[in-house]
Amino acid sequence: MQKSTAASGKYLNIGNEGFRSIRNSEYVDKTGLIRFMNKCLDTPQKLICVSRPRRFGKSFATKMLCAYYSKGCDSKELFEDLQIAKDPAFAKNLNQYEVLYLDITLFLSTLKQDDMLVERMEQEIINDLGKVYPEVGKEQHLVDALCAFHERTEEKMILIIDEWDAMFRECKGQTHILDAYILLLRSLFKSSLTDQLFSGVYMTGILPIKKYGHESAVSDFYEYTMVDPCPLQEYIGFTETEVEMLCKKYQKDYALMQQWYDGYFVGGIHVYNPKSVMESILRNKFSSYWTKTETYEALRDYIDMNFDGLKDAVIDMLGGAVCEVDTGSFQNDMTSMKSKDDVLTLLIHLGYLAYDEEKQTVGIPNVEIRQEFIRAIKNGNRTELMRAIQRSDDILRATWQMDGGTVAELINEIHDEDTATVFYNNEQALRSVVKMAYLSSVDYYTKMEELSAGKGIADLVFYPKVGVDKPALLVELKWNKTKEAAIAQIKEKNYMNVLKNYHGNILLVGINYNQETKEHSCLIEKAFCNNP
What we know:
There is one protein chain. The chain has helices at about 15-25, 30-40, 60-70, 75-80, 90-95, 105-110, 115-130, 140-155, 165-170, 175-190, 190-195, 240-250, 255-260, 275-285, 295-305, 310-320, 340-350, 365-380, 385-400, 405-420, 425-435, 485-490, and strands spanning about 45-50, 100-105, 155-160, 200-205, 210, 215, 220-225, 240, 265, 270, 325, 355, 360-365, 445-455, 455-465, 470-480, 505-515, 520-530. By secondary structure, the chain is an alpha/beta fold. It has 3 domains: about 15-225, 3-Layer(aba) Sandwich (Rossmann fold); about 235-380, no CATH class; about 385-530, Trna Endonuclease, Chain: A, domain 1. A 5-stranded parallel beta sheet has the order 2-3-4-1-7. A 5-stranded mixed beta sheet has the order 14-15-16-17-18, sandwiched between helices. α15 (about 295-305) crosses α18, α19 runs antiparallel to α20 (about 405-420) and α20 (about 405-420) crosses α21. It starts with 16 loop residues before the first helix and ends with a strand.
């Protein structure tokens, strides 16, 4: 294939300026994605759809692919120091393809969103092609224009669609627009035409491809998602190795970086949100950066949905627990919610929850996202969730102040409101109530349960996180005994040994439940731990 000096347009062969801008800043090498796509070109696997949350580098990837494949530009210098330059197929495919790049969010922001939106979008693209190949511009439908383009050039193109699912996110409930969009995609990706028109297609978005019943709207794509990412998991975000490298280069605390932005475990590896990691480095501050790119209202609306078990799942996850989830029924849109599992699955794709594919469980990944949950709950309609968060904050504050009376009083309230009558006089219920009481501890502590310590088992241990100036907590629970007996057991069995390598203040918290009076009591004492 001879290298062309092909003309460029608004959508055709947009060149390498986008990727050049990226390279002018700190760049983490993700060109292994090019190697993967090169292997897929002109094979049955050439239709690729990669979905991941916002601010996880989707547009960076599409700009990189445009720079690498597009005719009409010379991108060798942009890639020659990156991993892909060592690949045998590097020179073969570099700037050798007509590339059509479509950013669906651009059409949504510039075209009127009425029943003719999709038709106007098609005409925009056809007109752009027609500036380079006039005969193509005579067609009425995009698929016909691409067929005319192929007849004119005798070449296949690479099609890149960024934010392909933006239609479903921005035009919720506008059936005519969404149906027309699905028909457009189906016309482009009919198996009879795909081999003729495209050497490769790369689509990226937040949601997997929309389902109709049990079938995909566009069935021939190979999909790589937050639920099923292999083998592209290392390109979803920054890997641990990459973040460690950045922390070392910029002298940042890696342990704090983990607490704030780690927690997504996809395809067997930990990945970080690239937006947040880079913002924290550039601004020299750990804070919530990714969540500031969108208001909390979206998360709040999903939390407020009144599906059975959703409230309990949110409370458990706020306390650091994980919940089982069935991702199979999710219809890959933002409107067809029918169960708790559908809501949790959507939140996985949106990046608010982290999914463990092997265990099929879900949880809140890190400090940054937990803060967003708290913000959404405090401004939502689930008063029981708001009350649980506020009460937990009060309990933690009272614990630090060694106010055992207030701790006991608030735990009584939780026990009365949130424990089913049949389980009220149950030792496991006491443990569940106390864990709920200390939901807010996850912001400050790593929680451990039933740890071997000294001569026995410590019920609950709260170890301060890196950078947190708070005392460690040792909590012992008793049933029909006394709060003093709980404290005595901590001392007699030397539970403080569980805090290995810990030097500092520690609060011993003894909690007893009296089955006859149905009241809790709490005693808090201060100690100092100096374990080797």
